[in-house]
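Model the whole thing, not chain by chain.
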Amino acid sequence: MAESNTHAELEKGSSLWADAFQRLRKNKAALISGAILILITLTALFYEVVAQYGTGFVMEEQHTWVVPKPPGARSVPSHFFELSQAGLLAWEHVDANEDGFVEPNEIVAAYRDLEFETIDTDKSGALSYEEYVDAPLSLTSPNRFIPDCARWAMIKRSMAPIEDSSVFECDAGADQLMQPAETGKLVELVSSGEAQEMINRVDKDSDGLISKAEYVGLPEPRTHILGSDKLGRDLLTRTVYGARISLAVGLLATLVSFLIGVTWGATAGFLRGKVHNVMMRLVDILYGLPFMFLVILLMVVFGQKIYLLFLALGAIQWLTMARIVRGQVISLKNQEFVEAAETIGVSNSGIIFRHLIPNALGPIIVYATLTVPAVMLEEAFLSFLGLGVQAPQTSWGALISEGRQLMETSPWLIIWPSVALAVTLLCLNFLGDGLRDALDPQLRKD
Amino acid sequence: MTRFILRRLLASIAVLLVIITLSLWLTRQAPSNPCLKEREANTCACVKDNFLDRPVFPVYSGQVLSPVQNCAFWEPESVVSLGPVSILGPSEWGETQYSLYLGTLASGSLGKSMKTDLTVIETLKSGLPFTIQLGFQALLISLILGIPAGLIAGLRQNTMVDYSTMSVAMVGVSVPSIVLGPLMIMLFSLRLGWFSAVGWESFADSILPSFTLGLYYAAYVARLTRGGMLEVIRKDYIRTARAKGLTETMVVMRHALKGALLPVVSYLGPATAALLTGSVVVEEIFSLPGIGTHFVRSALNRDYNLVLGTIILYSTILVFLNMIVDVLYTLIDPRVSYDD
C-alpha cells in the first residue's frame, strides 16, 4: 500500500507552469516588480476610494491659483470633504461681522486665518523669514525674476509670493515680521468664487448667504501630496488618472498585437508552402517601415481618438510576435500529438487554436509582457508630442509634456509623472525578463 | 550576390511605392485640409493650386468632390452615376492627385509646401543636417558605450561587474528620452549651466540631445552584446582557439567578437528606424530645427506635401539602410545564404 503511494507521487511530477512559478519565485527583482505593478494597477483602478479617505481630490477639480502649488501645499477639496466646525472654522469665528449670515468674503477670511495659523509654526501671530521660506505656498523664483519692492507691491495681489528675502523684507517692513495683513496671496486658500460655491452647497433658501441654522461647518483643507499644476489640479490625482490611460493603452494595444501576431504567425507556420512564404515575406518587408510616422499621420488625420490609439499602436507591434509564434508552431507541428489530433479528424483551425497555440504559450506570454512597456513608451511619445490623448484626459506622456513647460519654476510637475513612467517601465522590463528566465530556461543568457 | 542585391533593390522600390500610395490616400481621407484655414476668398484658389480638386484614384464613389464648401470643381456631367456609386468618366481619369503626385516625384521634386513659399526639398534640406548629425552621434554613443559594456559583462559573467553593468543597462532601457531629456536639461543646463537648454548653434549644443537619444540604445546594445558573447564563448571553436594556446585577448578579439556582434549587426536596421523616430521626440525636447520638428508641425498644419515628403524621405533612408544591413549580414555571417 505504502509502496504504491510513493509510486503515484513519483509519477505526478510537476507541470511546466508549476516549474516556471518555482523559478520565478527565486527571482527577487521580478517578484518586487510584480508587486509594484499590482500596487500601481490597484491604485489606478480604485483611486476614488483612496481619494475619499486619503488624498481628497478628484480629476476635474480645479482650485483657483495663478501658479502651481508645490508638494505639501493645501487646497480645500470640493468633491470629497469633511466638514469641520472646530477652531477657526467655528460659527463665531467665521461670522466675523456678527450679522448672523456668512458671506463669501468671510469664508475667504476664515481660511486665510486658518492657513496663517498653519504657517505660523511658533504661534507668535506674525511670520518670521524662516516660517515664510518654509511655507509650502511660497514659490521658488527663477533667478531672473525677483521684483523690486515697488513692483512687488503692484503685482502681489495677483501672484503667489516669491521665496526671496527682498520680497519678504518688502512685505514685512522694518520689524522683519510679516503681520497677517501683510501676507497677501501667501495665505489665500480659497477664492471668492470657491467660497460662493461652498455657500451654494448648503444654502437652502437661495439667498446666497449661510444663516446660523444652515451652517454645518466648512470643508477641511487637504494637502496636495505631490503639489498641483497651474490650474490648481492635484498632481497625484492627475498622475493616477494618467496611469489609467497609460496602462489601458499598454494592455489593450498589446492585446491587439497579440491577436494579430498569434493568428498570423500560427497560420503561416501551420500552412507552410507558398502561403507561408508570402506571409512571412510580408512581415520582413513591414519590419523596416517607419511605422511611428504612419501612426502620427493616422492620429492627425482621424483625430486623437483613444480607441484608434489602441488599434494603431497594436497594429505596428505584432511583427515580432508573428515571427516567434511561427517558429514555435513549426517546431511543434511535427510532434506526435498533432499527428494524433489530425488522425482523429480535428480541423485545421482546431489544431492551431486548441493544440499548437496553448503549447507555444510560454514564449508568447514572455514577448507579450515585453510588448507592454514598448507600447506604453510609444503612447508616451505620442502624447508628449501632443498627438496622443487629448485634454481633459491625460496620460503620463501628456503630463510630462505639460510639466516641461514649467520645469524651471515647478520641477515637481515633471519629476513625479516621469518617476511614475520610468518605474512602471522598469518593473515591466524586470518582470518580462524574469518570466523569460522562468518559462524558457534555454533562452536564458547565462 | 548581384542577383540578391538586385532582388532586394526591386523589393525596396515596391515597398516605397506602397508607402507613398498609402500615405497619399491617408492624408486625403482627413476631414480637414490645408485650405480650410485660409481666408474664404482664397480658399477655392488654394484648393485648385494644390490639386485638391481632383480625386486620389480614378474611380470615385459618392458625391461630387468638393473639399471646401462652395467650391464644387467636378461638373456632374463627367460623373457616371451607377445607383449609389458614381464613377468618373474615362476622359477624366488622367488627372488624378495620384498621377499628378507620381509625376511630380518622377520629375525629381517633392512639390511645394502648402503653407510656406519654400519647396519641400528646400525645407527638408534645411533640417536634414541636424537630424543626420543627431542620429549619427547617438548611434556612435550607443556603440561606443554599449559594446564594451556588454563584452565586459559577458566575459565576467555572474560577477559584480556583470550585475552592476546590467542593472545600469536595465535602467537605461527603462528611462525614456522624454524623461531623460528634461532631467538632463534641469541638471546640466539650469543647475550647472554647462550647456544651453535649447537650440543648436555649436557642437556643444548637440551633446545633450545625442546622449538623450543614444543612451537607450547604448543600454540595449550592451544587453545584446552580452547575450551574443555568452552564446559564443562556449562554442567549440573558442575551446579550440584556447587549446591552441592563444592568449585570452586574442581569443576574444579574433574569434569571439565577430560572433558576439552578430545580434548587434542585425539590430542596426531596426535601431536606425528607432533612432529616426526617437529623434522626432528629442528634437521637440531640445527645440532643434531638424526634420522631426518639420514633420510634427506640418502634420498638425495639414501641410500635406511636406508630410508626404518627410515620410518618403524617412522611408527611403530606412528601406535602403535595411537593405545594406542585410547585405552586410551575409558578408559577416557566411551561414546566411543569398537566396532565401
